[in-house]
């Protein structure tokens, strides 16, 4: 029997592991996916900043246009959210180093670290806004 | 038990073809960025909002130009590495390859643009 099973080459219906939709959202899973979302979303701020730098290097008119976008209410919103995103990604990255070392993986500790990322990122965002 | 040496088993370096290189690059660039990002956030935040003369003056300072150049280069390479991991998780086949090429091209294109602008401002 085993031999015939192994010899079968056609696609078989394999059981799927429980998927995202059937998982109750948990602090650990939410803080993990937020790391990915914040990291990838930062491309928006990066595009704006590189464009703004190019404009600054080119001419007064071009700079005026790019600067108007970056310092508009919409630009402020994107930059402020990106500031939070980069601080979140920063703390979550540090947490990843800790996890990679095989530490902090007990549920209680992992959840504490998750809250640390969330609260810490908001605090650091506010501090940065005060400094600039 | 197969008669393979440890070296023979490591050759080809698994499904990714690059072994732990990608993982390690993300760790290294992450540590490097962790050192400079806090300074950059404050320095850039103070520059943003000034008029063009003020911006050019601030960005042409050697420390600021070097810092910004490092953030642009390693930030965007780190981005491309992370985006590639995300793409590999969700996309397959041709779509996967096309998207990885797209983020790689995007990151290098933005690095070249950013460094060109910085050079023009600072030099």
UniProtKB/TrEMBL annotation, chain A:
InterPro entries: SQR/QFR_C/D, Succ_DH_cyt_bsu_CS, Succ_DH_cytb556, SuccDH_FuR_B_TM-su. Belongs to the cytochrome b560 family. GO terms for biological process: tricarboxylic acid cycle. The chain crosses the membrane at residues 33-53, 73-92, 113-131. Membrane-anchoring subunit of succinate dehydrogenase (SDH). The heme is bound between the two transmembrane subunits. SUPFAM superfamilies: Fumarate reductase respiratory complex transmembrane subunits. This is Succinate dehydrogenase cytochrome b556 subunit.
UniProtKB/TrEMBL annotation, chain B:
Keywords: Electron transport, Heme, Iron, Membrane, Metal-binding, Transmembrane, Transmembrane helix, Transport, Tricarboxylic acid cycle. One of its GO terms (biological process) is tricarboxylic acid cycle. The keyword rRNA-binding does not apply. CDD domains: SQR_TypeC_SdhD_like (cd03495). It is a multi-pass membrane protein. The keyword Electron transport applies. It is found in: Membrane. Its main location: membrane. One of its GO terms (molecular function) is metal ion binding. Its cofactor is heme. Membrane-anchoring subunit of succinate dehydrogenase (SDH). Part of an enzyme complex containing four subunits: a flavoprotein, an iron-sulfur protein, plus two membrane-anchoring proteins, SdhC and SdhD. This is Succinate dehydrogenase hydrophobic membrane anchor subunit.
